[in-house]
Design goal:
- The structure holds 2 protein chains of 2 kinds.
- By secondary structure, chain A is an alpha+beta fold.
- Helices cover 48% and strands 14% of the residues of chain A.
- Chain A has 13 helices and 8 strands.
- A 4-stranded mixed sheet of chain A has the order 1-4-5-8. In chain A, strands 2-3-7-6 form a 4-stranded antiparallel sheet, with no helix packed on it.
- In chain A, strand 2 and strand 3 form a beta hairpin.
- Chain A is globular and about 70 Å long.
- The two termini of chain A are 16 Å apart.
- In chain B, strands 1-4-5-6-3-2 form a 6-stranded mixed sheet, sandwiched between helices.
- Chain B is an alpha+beta fold.
- Classes of the chains: A alpha+beta, B alpha+beta.
- The interface between A and B is large, with 53 and 56 residues.
- The structure holds flavin-adenine dinucleotide.
- The site of flavin-adenine dinucleotide has 20 residues of chain A, from strand 1, strand 3 and helix 13.
């Protein structure tokens, strides 16, 4: 098979199994104490800053980052085990998710020393949350068409105007890494002239308007910038290098277990039902679902191992996200065909609730982080077709 | 170059002389390919030299099986190297010469009688029909997994010489022999296996098929990508059309998933221990991928891929066959789910993280 898509098997990691056991124990205690309830898709909807701080205290945020920024210098495999356990338990991880997964690594690669020292230790402590400011009302899949503009003023600061949309959890977050045009668009070089700015979301001129998703939940937002003055030293990375920077970010964004475990709490609930019923048709469905989960874990682990080796496996990450998010939707249909349960958010039956949550969140799985059509285009490039 | 690269290259070299061919009534397997492999010592790889094998690791044997599967080599190498040989060794039974093909079969309806007693290897007679024997009429010996004699728990593993027995005429969708053998008081050396060991052996057989499926899936994808790059319609290669790119990308996702999981299951087997769930998962996942990959491969190839002349069917017909052999997805998905729930209703996730 084409080398661009192939990744070496992940080595087994005793350290990862060790930390997995610790997280499991912690989660069991928290569940028993009633500090959280299991839900589907909690990395979008489960905002709980107190919980995030607890994870920080345990050393489970910024796990792979250098110690001098508060990180723990552990392996991507150990981090993988932690994130996987949190997702499987449906724990409320949305507050810190983007900062820990994506913005921190982005700062490590492109940030100035000052930016890193100021921000990274706060992320590690579970006290500083981030948003991804990429999409705009007229720019989704075609991200290079963004129009939000940043212009240098006489003091060397950036004046930002425009609007970002679908920004998950902007109303709970401290900073955004915002993709802006710092030079007029040039049809001949569509990817030139973009930059990333590190923007404090409390700055004057920023308005955050809620947008509700299908179940009425408020998770994403429109963020409007009107003459927002961003200090000159808050440029992230190089001026004009924004496109390269956002695409590099995507290996972190696309390959993690959140791309196939958003609906795991539904699978767990279904597993309980099957254990009860022993029904052969349900057993077969659970078996098929489990085989897919096991394959996805191996794929995702291979990417974690590649990150440990210092690679940036963008193309395999796109592939894992395509297969993973397709699975997240399929699971709902597979399960509902073999259980006689009416989905309802307020049912006393946990399976009915999980089905309802999973169903109402389903359209998002294959959109966020790049749609499956776009991802398949990237995979096709990896196959040498483009 | 790693050992496995070397093995793969050797097998590929040999295969080029025996490109995939349609099997016919008078050509039921590739005897010439088998002899060439046997002469090179490749039909004993992964089996220790003390026992008459050629030595080498499990990974080497798997590499051979994968290469032959991708090349549609019509020889019982997967059965011999990954199932029958290791099963005999694990049961302390003598290994027949690796130069003569030995296959494996599950014979739930065969009755077994001990000729002598005592534990460990012994003598048995077997009576009844062994169905769906891979390479029936081709292999001179079958390692049969049959129910233990009445009142005894577990199963009997017996090595039966079938060189003089006629096999019924039956073939899988790819034309590979899958007939049955009728045993009448057939004398065999054999050993008693615990139910657990017998279950592991069935799983090994399923994993062998999963390994073949994985290799064939990869090859079908590679052929299809190549074809899409060459075939022109509307003035450009098919692969430039977005609809075709989507189909190829979907195939790539399926193939990558299967490879990752079968690799992990083989590694689990190599580490020892109980691989029933890992093998079950690999077989189920590979079977599921066949649906997508074979369908889209034929779609992208258009009418030419629907012909006997084109090579595509040598692998798609094997994919359609192998997914139902050594236990279907239905069978193994139930084994997998039951095993994952063995620790109770809340044990699913911890179990999932232990399988591979
Ligand atoms: C739950 C959720 C959270 C999100 N969080 C964030 C966030 O925090 N920050 C952020 O910046 N964005 C976020 N997004 C936005 C997300 O990245 C976009 O939705 C996504 O990139 C698609 O853009 P769009 O919605 O404008 O769809 P469009 O680009 O308008 O696409 C509509 C459809 O057309 C298809 N399509 C478009 N172009 C092509 C093409 N060239 N070939 C084939 N098909 C094509 C798409 O695949 C899709 O099916 C979030 C989205 C969701 C659903």
């Amino acid at each position: 098979m084409s080398n661009a898509l192939t990744l070496a098997p992940a080595p087994r990691s005793e350290a990862a199994e060790q930390v997995r056991a610790e997280v499991r124990e912690f989660l069991a205690a928290e569940l028993a104490a009633g500090t959280f309830e299991t839900h589907v898709d909690t990395w979008l909807s489960g905002v709980d800053p107190v919980f995030s701080r607890k994870l920080g205290e345990r050393g489970w945020l910024g796990m792979t980052w250098p110690k001098k920024y508060g990180g723990h210098e552990r392996s991507a495999m150990e981090r993988y085990a932690v994130t996987e356990e949190l997702l499987a338990a449906g724990a409320p991880v949305a507050a810190h998710w983007i900062a820990d997964r994506q913005s921190g690594p982005n700062l490590l690669t492109y940030g100035t020393e000052k930016q890193r020292q100021e921000i990274l230790p706060r992320i590690v402590a579970g006290e500083c949350f981030f948003v991804i400011g990429m999409s705009e009302p007229d720019s989704g899949s075609d991200l290079a068409s963004i129009r939000t503009k940043a212009v240098r003023n006489a003091d060397g600061d950036w004046v930002v105007n425009g609007a970002k949309v679908w920004t998950s959890n902007a109303h709970h977050s401290h900073y955004g890494i915002v993709l802006v045009r710092t030079a007029p668009s040039d049809p001949a070089h569509r990817h030139a002239g973009m930059s990333q700015l590190l923007i404090d979301l409390s700055l004057p001129g920023i308005t955050i308007n809620p947008i509700r998703i299908l179940d009425g939940g408020h998770h994403f937002n429109e963020v409007v910038f009107e003459d927002v003055v961003v200090p000159g030293d808050m440029l992230l990375g190089e001026e004009g290098n924004g496109w390269h920077q956002v695409t590099a970010e995507l290996a972190f964004e696309r390959s993690g277990p959140e791309r196939f475990l958003s609906t795991y709490p539904l699978v767990a609930e279904f597993g309980r039902r099957v254990a009860d019923s022993g029904d052969p048709a349900q057993l077969a469905v659970l078996g098929r679902i489990s085989a897919r989960v096991l394959a996805l874990r191996q794929m995702s682990l291979r990417i974690a191992a590649a990150l440990d080796r210092g690679e940036l496996p963008n193309i395999p990450a796109a592939l894992v996200k395509d297969v993973g998010t397709s699975f997240e939707g399929d699971v709902i249909e597979e399960i509902r065909k073999v259980v006689d349960v009416t989905p309802s958010l307020d049912s006393p039956d946990p399976l009915a609730r999980a089905l309802a949550e999973a169903q109402l969140h389903a359209p998002g799985y294959t959109l966020r982080g790049g749609t499956n059509e776009i991802l398949r285009g990237i995979v096709a490039r990896g196959l040498g077709l483009r | 170059m790693s050992d496995q690269d070397l093995v793969v290259e050797t097998v590929r070299d040999i295969l080029t002389g025996f490109e995939p061919f349609a099997l016919t009534a008078d050509r039921r397997w590739d005897a010439g390919l088998w002899s060439a492999l046997a002469d090179a010592g490749l039909t004993g790889v992964g089996l220790p030299e003390e026992a008459g094998g050629s030595g080498g690791e499990l990974a080497d044997a798997v590499a051979i099986v994968r290469t032959l599967a991708a090349g549609a080599g019509a020889v019982p190498v997967a059965e011999q190297l990954l199932v029958a040989g290791p099963a005999l060794l694990a049961a302390d039974l003598d290994l027949p010469s690796p130069e003569e093909p030995t296959t494996f079969a599950i014979a739930d309806a065969v009755t077994v009688h001990p000729v002598d007693d005592g534990d460990g290897p012994g003598r048995f007679t077997l009576t009844g029909t062994v169905p769906d024997v891979a390479w029936a009429g081709v292999a001179s010996r079958v390692v049969v997994l049959a129910p233990a004699p009445g009142g005894i728990e577990g199963a009997v593993l017996a090595l039966v010489d079938v060189s003089s027995l006629p096999a019924s005429d039956a073939y899988n969708l790819a034309g590979e022999p899958r007939g049955s053998l009728v045993l009448e008081q057939a004398a065999a050396s054999g050993a008693l296996l615990s139910e657990t060991r017998a279950g592991e052996l069935r799983a090994r057989y399923a994993l062998a098929r999963a390994v073949q499926l994985a290799a064939a899936l990869e090859q079908v994808l590679a052929w299809t990508v190549q074809y899409a790059g060459e075939r022109q319609q509307f003035g450009r290669p098919l692969g430039k059309f977005q609809a075709i790119q989507m189909e190829l990308a979907e195939m790539a996702g399926e193939v990558t998933a299967v490879t990752a999981l079968t690799d992990a299951a083989v590694q689990a087997l190599d580490r020892g221990g109980n691989v029933v769930l890992a093998a079950a998962a690999a077989k189920v996942r590979a079977g599921a991928a066949v649906e997508v990959v074979a369908r889209l491969a034929h779609q992208v190839h258009g009418a030419i891929g629907f012909t006997q002349e084109h090579k595509l069917h040598h692998l798609t017909r094997r994919l359609w066959s192998w997914r139902d052999e050594a236990g279907s997805e239905l069978v193994w998905s139930r084994v997998l789910a039951s095993g994952l729930l063995a620790d109770g209703p809340d044990g699913l996730w911890p179990a999932l993280t232990r399988v591979v």
